[in-house]
Amino acid sequence: MIDPLSVFLLLLSASTPILFAALGELVVERAGVLNLGVEGMMITGALSGFAVAHATGNPFAGFLGAAVAGAAISLLFAALTQAFLANQVASGLSLTLFGLGMAAMFGKPLEGVKAPPMPAGPFGINWIVWLGLLAVPAIWWFLTRSRPGLVLRGVGENHDAAHALGYDVRLTRLAAIAFGGAMAGIGGAFISIATVLQWTEGMTAGAGWIALAIVVFSNWTAVGVLAGAWLFGGVTVLQLRLQAAGVNVPVQLLSMAPYLATIIVLVLISGRQKYSRRAGAAAPGSLGRNFHALR
Asked: What is the pTM of this model?
């Protein structure tokens, strides 16, 4: 007999890495920046967080280290796109390749090492799961009710108009990119510290690409991101339950999902200027466009 509570707890755990990464990318895209380097930032956070947790024996120190590492690597993307005005799509893809390669190289000594145990939070739910759930209303409030959040959205909608009003477009986007990197880092660390409990090369397994897809399909809203993360978590739990029941689910279908989602996301984003307003979508008007200061 299936216990609904245990299934719900599994869903929360499976959706948490995606939720963190997607919430961070939501803020980044609301600022008008398209960062396809989420996977690279997640794997960097997974490795850095695990290394710090193992060295200190404190899993919470590991999550802090993952946030710092994710923000740090995201600044490479920020430098390329905000200072040197490089193409955002190419820079994001390069960041993912860089993060995956760096994690594979530096993670070798940590293979086979166990993560320190995490204390259970209220109702037996991991503290980081609670943090992710609380982040949803916090980010909703920030983007819709706070003055800095409205400024960030204004930058994402029309960076030239925001600049003309005296707002620092590059600084706003830099802060958003760093926040997105920190959130992706925490999401990656959850996989290595709280889910797999050890370091394994490529352990994010396309979670960053799924997070990118969820942001678009959520119509750029925090509540929609939560629903999308839970949907993905539900699919993961269903797949595990089917396998436990003896139903053969082809692994190839799961492996192709992140890349199929990425293709769909790129198609949707590339056509946003032509179709988004007509369809009522909420894509930021300056999404993916570099800012050139007005003379």
From this structure: 0.90
CATH no. of 4-279: 1.10.3470
Give the pLDDT confidence of 38-57 residue by residue, as tens digits: 999 999 999 999 999 999 99
Domain map (residue ranges) of the chain:
4-279
Nearest Cα to 29, choosing from 193, 206, 189, 184?
184
Question: Would you say 32 and 155 are in contact if contact means Cβ atoms under 8 Å apart?
Answer: yes
3-state secondary structure the chain: CCCHHHHHHHHHHHHHHHHHHHHHHHHHHHCCCCCCCHHHHHHHHHHHHHHHHHHHCCHHHHHHHHHHHHHHHHHHHHHHHHHCCCCHHHHHHHHHHHHHHHHHHHCHHHECCECCCCCECHHHCEHHHHHHHHHHHHHHHHHHHCHHHHHHHHHHHCHHHHHHCCCCHHHHHHHHHHHHHHHHHHHHHHHHHHHCCEECCCCCCCHHHHHHHHHHHCCCCHHHHHHHHHHHHHHHHHHHHHHHCCCCCCHHHHHHHHHHHHHHHHHHHHCHHHHHHHHCCCCCCCCCCCCCCCC
